[in-house]
Every structure is written in structure tokens, then in C-alpha cells.
Amino acid sequence: METRTTLPIASQRALSTTAARCLNIDNINPNIKAAKYAVRGELAVKAEEYRVKLAQGDKSLPFDSVIFANIGNPQQLDQKPITFFRQVLSLLENPLLLKNKEALRTSFGYQDDVIARAEKLLAEVQSVGAYSHSQGAPLIRESVAKFIERRDGYSADPQSLFLTGGASSGVNTLLNVICNGPNAGVLVPIPQYPLYTATLSLLNATCVPYQLEEQKAWGTDLDAMRRSLQQAKAAGTDVRAVVVINPGNPTGASLSADDIKSVLDIAAEEKLVVIADEVYQTNVFVGEFTSFKKRLRELQQEVPAKYDNVELVSLHSVSKGMVGECGHRGGYFELVGFDPLVAAQVYKFISIMLCPPVIGQCLVELMVNPPKEDEPSHELYQKEYNGIREGLHKRALALYEAFQRMEGVECQEPQGSMYLFPTITLPPKAIESAAAEDRAADEFYCLRLLDATGVCVVPGSGFGQKENTFHFRTTFLAPGTDWVERIVKFHSEFMAKHN
Amino acid sequence: METRTTLPIASQRALSTTAARCLNIDNINPNIKAAKYAVRGELAVKAEEYRVKLAQGDKSLPFDSVIFANIGNPQQLDQKPITFFRQVLSLLENPLLLKNKEALRTSFGYQDDVIARAEKLLAEVQSVGAYSHSQGAPLIRESVAKFIERRDGYSADPQSLFLTGGASSGVNTLLNVICNGPNAGVLVPIPQYPLYTATLSLLNATCVPYQLEEQKAWGTDLDAMRRSLQQAKAAGTDVRAVVVINPGNPTGASLSADDIKSVLDIAAEEKLVVIADEVYQTNVFVGEFTSFKKRLRELQQEVPAKYDNVELVSLHSVSKGMVGECGHRGGYFELVGFDPLVAAQVYKFISIMLCPPVIGQCLVELMVNPPKEDEPSHELYQKEYNGIREGLHKRALALYEAFQRMEGVECQEPQGSMYLFPTITLPPKAIESAAAEDRAADEFYCLRLLDATGVCVVPGSGFGQKENTFHFRTTFLAPGTDWVERIVKFHSEFMAKHN
User: GO molecular function of the protein, one example (chains A, B) (predicted)?
Assistant: First the structure.
């Protein structure tokens, strides 16, 4: 292995002047400089500093814990992983455990379906330490295809499925392929998950925003979408795709089958690629999830001439839902209606990074193919799954009720996803104080909230919002009500101070 | 969960004309179209098709197994994972196993250091299913810093370390930051690992090739590097960085401390960022690995004025070495001498993808901090580690000897990495036959080799080679000698046919 000679440790070199280096802030890739990603921005960095201080025993802070409500990170908070998933993954990581199945059963309660699944996946991937096919292991893609078939009632082709390192990496791939220069435009909902605007910045492409309707539970306003599209086209932008996040992030809104049809109508008429971010498809409290793929197939049966050429990509992930395994970076996307030559370029692009994490791929397989009713792990799986689902709904409602008690705060009823996105009406004095610090008023509010309570949320400006409105996004993942009461108390003091 | 109504399954939609879709091969991102990545290109796709055919019982092929020698994928072939690593990972995936430590010990032979390490890592990450800090979990970065300190004798700063999803994703990050437009140039060795040229294509930046010296065991020719640099500068290219792959891929060559100094000299004089791809740092058969970081720190002590502003980034990975866990996508890079404002942009860029796979991060920790001599898992670890190392060396030598027996094949003695990169002198008739198929002669050769033997290697053109020379890259990972004899036999028939 490496040599272990202990030479004198050099002290950290002092920072030198910018001019002496090759790279400085003014000459690196300007697209990176321009990109914004508030979910892990200044507030998150500060929250992490507070966390470290508390861990080091610092008693000077006015709170005793940091609540990371800035990001949908279920297992960082209270959510326990689903036992079946993790039992299988433990066997995949150490197949030698399979040499003593009796001990697995008697000492650790591993059921036969856990063992059988691990053996099946190992037979496919050989080792989770080996590169797989760049699109993902064939058997896993077949399993995803069957899941889509069961969900939608329409077949799916494993060859059109691409496993990914979380949905984020899928979005990155797709926008890379679609955007061919500064003139390429993509319709993005506002508010949106900032992955979209950030990636468009990185690609130096044009973001064409369309406003969601807050007063209609953050529904998709098709007229607004058409207006934005026409304006962009009139300005010379080559609008190529429309992003729909359903259920919505940060809004939680669920699209009806009719709204989905309207989006597909616009896509068919205007030749837009539909990017359906469906990672919250199981986080639905109100109504029922309809996939874009299903609706498209229905419409293709009804009016093939109109819909047959619609290009749709649908994304899913192990990060959200009741799975909540975001640290594993697993996900997939399905290409529908793409030119095979374009799909081949998608393949080449992803192959440069070799393959998505194989253990994450296996987790995708477990997510889309959980224990069946007659299998021994089913009962526990179902109990855990339902428990997580009910817990999320309960916490969403508790937070929603707290917001209703707060002066100047309005929030749409929770419908799905993992977030609430309330409006805050801030007094003029607060807006002035924010301006004096060269900050947007909602950013100012969120920073003060963090400093006073340790609760980290993300200002609405990080997602986009109508001018002169202020919001913040908070997850409803954190357990207990203490942190909610911290927000309530802070808010009333903040309002009093700035009135 | 999702609805399971079984509606009639629609047949796959027929492909429509290109014109009716938004995206076609001529209007997508031209940089993707231009990128080349032969390691997973046409040959690899064909090899996979053969594999599937064989698995389906097809008896029509002239071979009974496919040997994927196109890619350094140790565990796809014979290499067994190191037990200590996988035992710890199994506990991280299912922490409930820790509830019965006695059974872990008695039924599965888990040692106390395995259990202690798992508990330590779990205390840090909470759950491998949770997002970590975007740069990687702090404790893991500290562990990497200590490893670098032990290896080099110079301190490392955890804040300057970025855990990645394999080294590939690190290279992608760095080239994204460095390249600010078509005029930005990066010196890349020829032959090289095509990740570099592919990523530069994706960024529409300029690849400035410098030739390695085949006759000097693929050594780095500093004069050639300077010449390429001056030519590129004269042509108006803003050369910003130099890539060094050490030990080399595809060449296996190891740089001496003197050669490293010469590269650092050029970097200091010309203000170039040094990108040191050191993923094969433990795959060294001849001489000893010296890291760029260590050499730089030594020179900084000797002549601070000259070297203090050198910007260096060093990459490492769990994919190669005796670890061979490429499917886990783990790695890191260390920034040395970077402007803090630039480092902050690196952070923002990676944060958009949230975090590298957490289980891969934990594997990085295990790689850099293996069982110590007085710990119970040490003996087995050392035995497995040495066994893999010796096996690799033995196979490299066997393959090298086979190449010496082959007419018109010349190969440098194996020095390191996982590859041999022989020259093949092809008869004119073979070159003509290749041209008739619109192929480079080495591509033609490799394709015929695959069709005849099931052995998949990568033509030299995929890595770059001097004009009118032909090579191929093969890993020496596959066990046994049968596949080597397949190559020998094919080669002699090929030469006879085309003479």
C-alpha cells in the first residue's frame, strides 16, 4: 500500500493574490457563476455551521437543535428505512451472509422472500461493486417496465428506460441533450424546484417561466403557459420542452387528468418535449396520481394523428415517496416517442459516466417490485409503508394549521409532495430592513428565522415567485411540534418588531 | 400505492418521421453529437448483445463466453470484494443487524472492528439513505485528509476535499469549472482515457493533445508537452490546465518524481491547473507511486516563490486498485491552491446534484482507513489485498508474454494500472479491408476479434495514437489463460488472411 513516512507537516499555505493563479472568480465558466441553487445555498451552509457548533457543545446559540426543513431528506430526520429494502441491500453488500441462511432467519428474522430477492439480484449484477450496463442492469429495467405497465395499464420498453443516480442526474442528462445553445428555451413552472433553472444556467439555455396559480391550489394555468410560450417565441426563443413537476415541488399540487391532457395538447401542437418530473407520485394526499405516460397512451388511442409524435420523458426516484432513500441516489427515466437516433445520443452521454450506482439500481428494483400480498415480508412492508404515509399526512396538517394561526401567512391546503409553500405578507419596515442588507425580504425573513430558532427553510425567491410576493418552502418531515412552535413564536416577534 | 387496473396494453407505437418530432439528430446539442467514448461504444454494445445471445442459449456463435476486456471492471470478472469492506457496508445498509452482535460474531465471523466501524459511520451519516453534506460527510472527509497526510507526509484540509460519485464525476466537475468557452484549452495526454476528450467535447472546449513516448515505456515527454502548449498558445488558445494520468491509462506508465517536478514546473511557469488523475495509485508494479501533492509540497518548501500558487487537483476512487468497487461509484478530489471564491463555485456546482452516493462515501472511508495491524480484521484484509495484487501482476505478465509471441505485436512491459496497450503492425491488406468498411484499421481488427472470439477490447483510436500506428487496450483482469489463447489464435489467422 501507500508509504507511511512521516515527514514534517507543512502548514496551510497562505492565500495569494488572485492574479498569480490561473483561475479566479472572473475567468471561470460564467454559466456556473450565474447558476443559483438556494436549497443548498447560504442558509443551508449557515445551518450546517450551527449544527457543528451545537455538536461541539456551544451553548451560546438560542436553540438546542437545527431543523433542516430546507430539503426533502426524510432519513436525516425521523423516517426509518423500510426493513425489506434494507435487508435485501445488506445481502447484496455482503453475499457471504447467504452462506448461513438459517442464522439469517433465526437470529435476524430475514424472510425467505428477502433471501430470494437478493439471490435474484446478485445473479443479475454479479456484484454490486461491478459496473453495470450504462442504462442500468437489464433485469432491473425489465422490473421497472413491469411496474409502469401495472401502474398505467400500458406497456413499457426496458430499452427506453435509463436508470440514474437520482432524478437530478436524469434531468441533467435530458436538458443537456435538448439544449443546443442560448436560443433553446424550456418552459419551467414558477415556483419550481431550482434544479431546472440551475441546469439551464449551466447550459446557457433560456428558461421560459410560466406562473402557477396560487389561488387555485397552485394549479397549472394553461393560459399562462401558452402566453409565456408565445412571448418567448415572439422574442425568437426556440422553445423545445416543457417541465411539469407533478405532484408539485415546492407547491405539493396534483394535476388532474384534464390538466395533463391540456399540457399534452400544447406539447402536440407546439412540438415540445414534455419533461414530467413525477418523483412525488406516491406523495399524494388529495385525489389520485395520473402519470403523463398513461394519459398520453389514452390520447394516442383516441386521436393517434394528434398525439403519436409527442416526446415525453417521465422521471422517478427512490428519494421521495415512502421510500425516502435519497442518500442512495437511485432513479430512472423513461423515454417515450423519442427518435432512436436521439435516444442513442442519450445513451452515449450517460455512458461517459459509466453507470449509476448499482446498489441504488437495486433499490429502484425493490421500490417498483415490493413484496406481494402472499409473500412473507408483505405484512411488515405494508405496515411500515402505511405508517410513513400517515405520519407525513399528519405532520403536513399540523404545520398547515400552525400557518393558519400566524398573522399575514397564507397557505394552500396540503395536497402532496413533502412541502408547504406559504405566502408571507411582510410589513414595509421588514422590506426596508432587508433592502438595507441588500437582501430580498423573504431571504431576510428566513435568515432571521434560522438565527433565532435553528429552523432552516428556503426563501421563495429560490424557487421563483410573483413580483412583490414572498414565500418560503418548508418540508413537513421533521417530527414533533416543537420546531413548528419555534416558527410560530419567531413569526409573531418578527411581525411585532417590524410593525 | 399505485393503481393496478389492468387496461389493454398498447402495442409499441410505430416510429414516425423525424420531421414530426421536436428532437432529431441534427438539432440536439451538437456537443453531445461530437463527443466520442469508445470504452462503451459500438464494440461494447455488440459484446453485450453476444452475451445476451449466449445467455439465451444461442449455439450459433463461435465462442461460449464473452470476455469484457474493454473496461476496468474487476468484479464483473473474477475479483472478489474485500471482506472487511463488505461486512461494514452490510451493517450500514441494515443497522438492525447490530441488534444481535453475538450472532454477527458467531454465525458470520464479523469481528469487533467491523462492528465498531459500522457504528462510527452510522453515527456520522445517521442513515446511508439520507443526503449528506454536498461535499461528503465531514467525518469521511477528515478520514481522507488523514490518509493523504500519512501517504504524503503533508497535511490535507477536509474543507478542500470533495467526495464524488467515482472519479469520472470529479473530472466532469473540474472541467466544467475550468472551461469558460471554446477558447479554453486543456492539455491531455495521447493516448488518454477518453473521459477527458469526451468531456471537453461536451463543454465545447479545446483539447490540446500531447504525445506520450511509447518507446520510453509511455513516459511523459516534457518537450512534447511544451511544444503542444506553445503551438496552442500561438493559435490563440487559452491553455488553462494539464491532465496527467498517473499511473497511466491506457498505458500503465508510472511517473518518476523528476517527471512530476517537470510537469509542476510547466504548470508554475505557464499558470496551468494540474489535474492529476491518480486513481491507479496502488496499481503499481514497477517503482513507487509519488503523488503530485507530495511533490508539490516538497517544491513549495524548497522554492516557495515559484510553486506557492500552483493549483492542483488530485483525484482518487474506490473503482480501481485492489478495491475494485467501481459499481459503488465512490471517489474524491482534493483542491490545492485554489482561490476560495473558485472553490465556492465548485461547491455550488456539485450541490445542484445534492450529494454523492452515501454508501460509496462510506466505502471511500474504508479504503483510506483499512484495518490497522493490531485490529482483528487486519490479517484477512492483508491476505485478500495481497492476493488481488499478486493476481493482477501475474495476469499482466501472462498477457504480456502472449503478446511477445504474436507476430507484429509490440507491447511495453506492464508497469501498473489495469491495462496493456500493445501496438499492432497491420498488413496493408487489412488496412484496405478496413477502409472499405469505412473503419480505422484497429477498429476493424478489434471488431473481427470480438466476432471471432468473444473478447472485447478497445481500439487505440478510442484513446488517441500517433498517425499510422495502431493499438488496442485490453485489461488484464480476466482470469485464466483461455481468453489469451483465443487472442493469439485469432491474431495468427487474421495476419495469415490479410497477408
Answer: transaminase activity
- Is the pLDDT at B11 greater than 80? The verdict is no
Closest residue in chain A to residue B20, using alpha carbons only: A309
DSSP A361: H
Contact criterion met (CB < 8 Å) for B21 and A339: yes
Q: Residues B199-227: what's their mean pLDDT? A: 95
Residue by residue, DSSP assigns B215-243 as GGTTEE-HHHHHHHHHHHHHTT-EEEEEE
**Phi-psi sector, A307: left (phi>0), alpha (psi -120 to 50), beta:** alpha
Give the span between the Cα atoms of A242 and A225, in whole angstroms.
9
Which residue do the cell numbers 485478500 mark?
B384
Supply the Cα-derived Rg of chain B in whole angstroms. Answer: 24
CA A224, chain centre distance (Å) = 24
For B445-492, write each residue's pLDDT tens digit: 999 999 999 999 999 999 999 999 999 999 999 998 899 999 999 999
CATH number at residue B218: 3.40.640.10
Q: How confident is the model at residue B3 (pLDDT cuts 50, 70, 90)?
A: very low
Residues A360 and A436 in one domain: no
Structural domain includes residue B98: no
pLDDT digits (tens, 9 = 90+) for A127-182: 999 999 999 999 999 999 999 999 999 999 999 999 999 999 999 999 999 999 99
For residue B355, the chain A residue with the least C-alpha distance is: A327
Q: How far apart are CA A308 and CA A303, in angstroms?
A: 8
Q: Are residues A108 and A213 in the same domain?
A: no
Domain match, B179 and B208 both: yes
Number of domains in chain A: 3
Question: Do the chains contact at A180 and B29, CB–CB below 8 Å?
Answer: yes
| Structural domain of A432 | 30-77+384-497
Do B347 and B251 reside in the same domain of the chain?
yes
In this prediction the ipTM stands at 0.95
pLDDT at B40: 87
